[in-house]
Amino acid sequence: MIQLRTISSGIFCSLLLLLLWGCSSTAPKPSDDEIDALFADSLFKSVSNIPSVEDIFSLPPSVAADVRRAYDRYSLSTKNPVAVHEWLASYINANQLDGHSDFHYQDNLTQTASETYAQRAGNCMSLVVMTSALADVFKIGTEFQDIAIEPVWDKQGEFYLINGHVNLRLLPAESVHTVYVSAHAILVDFMPERALRGYNKVQINRQTLTSMFYNNMAAESLVEGDLDRAYALIKAGLKSGHFIPALNTLAVIYRHKGDEKRAEQVYRYALKYDADDMTTLYNLAVILGEQGRLEEWAQVNKVLELARIRNPYYYYDMGEQAYDEHQYSEALAWYQRAVDKADYRHEFFFGLSRTYWALGDEKRAKLNMEKAMALSREATDKHRYQAKLQAMQQH
Length: 395
Fold this sequence. Notes:
The chain is an alpha+beta fold. The protein has 2 domains: about 1-295, Tetratricopeptide repeat domain (Serine Threonine Protein Phosphatase 5, Tetratricopeptide repeat), CATH 1.25.40; about 310-395, Serine Threonine Protein Phosphatase 5, Tetratricopeptide repeat (Alpha Horseshoe). The chain is about 55% helix and about 10% strand. The chain contains 17 helices and 8 strands. The protein has helices spanning about 30-35, 55, 60-75, 85-90, 115-120, 125-135, 205-225, 225-240, 245-255, 260-275, 280-290, 295-310, 310-325, 330-340, 345-360, 360-375, 380-395; strands at about 1-10, 10-15, 105, 120, 140-155, 160-170, 185-190, 200-205. Strands 1, 2, 5, 6, 7 and 8 form a 6-stranded antiparallel sheet that branches. The chain has a two-stranded parallel sheet with strand order 3-4. The longest helix is centred in the middle third of the chain and has 18 residues, at about 205-225. It is globular, with a radius of gyration of 23 Å. It starts with a strand and ends with a helix.
């Protein structure tokens, strides 16, 4: 799951974050009429290619038939077959014990179950949706979980992204006719390295997961600059389930459409249901600051200051500024603090590399360029770092 933030006047504008968001059954829920009043269809063009809820969770009949045949072959060839939910977990190799899962995690766009099955890869949301669709083939019960992991930061264009995490459990069938010695729920998680044992988990229903799915897709469309599609997706998400963080997404879309009045209205409405949500407060602060409403901005900013210093890109941006001003020792300190917060971001190591080079420390410059190259996922970044490393080595 994704949170996006854009830089604006030194304040971050946020979008989507999957943490412990309004999942409590005792939390107040907005009414359908209140949600409907927040939409402004007249600002956007109609979009037709929005997946329905059925599209999200459905598999082609041929896939369902293939999976059923695979289970039948297993059952006929095994003397003591395991329960079907255990077989399914093994079929997708969810535990990845041998490191060679048939289906694997890939940090790409959010996809429907059929798309993910065809590609044998997807992000955590896509893989959870696909696994749920496979479970539906066998009428296996599922439980979805929102995991309160430490946020993983990324950046695309003007947006900062924070990725959350969801997984699911496959439940044993409740039958008086069949007894399995080891019938227990199976956790399906495609990122076991997260050591999920240490994080809080909140059970969510399929409606909330569906709303999260649309929320992800809306964020991805916003990054691509397709506001009409982003709006259509987030509207579908809010109608599927009243997932409060999706209101923040809607407000960001309005702001990028140029309707700051409507964006502020939605931000403040979202804060009625979660007054301490940092994401929404960041976004509201952007509008207040740009409009010169400094007293209101100062009140919000007091709450935000602690959250800001937890953001690794705060230190990275300070490093960039110091580097541009040729304050290399200062830049080095800022970049190092960014790495301390998020040692998986290639651009942080690139910042260290070029700063060490400017300071005459060629050995550390090369070492950090190698790290930047190893961490980069995009081919363009890898080639750029490789070219710079070769230039350093030939120096």
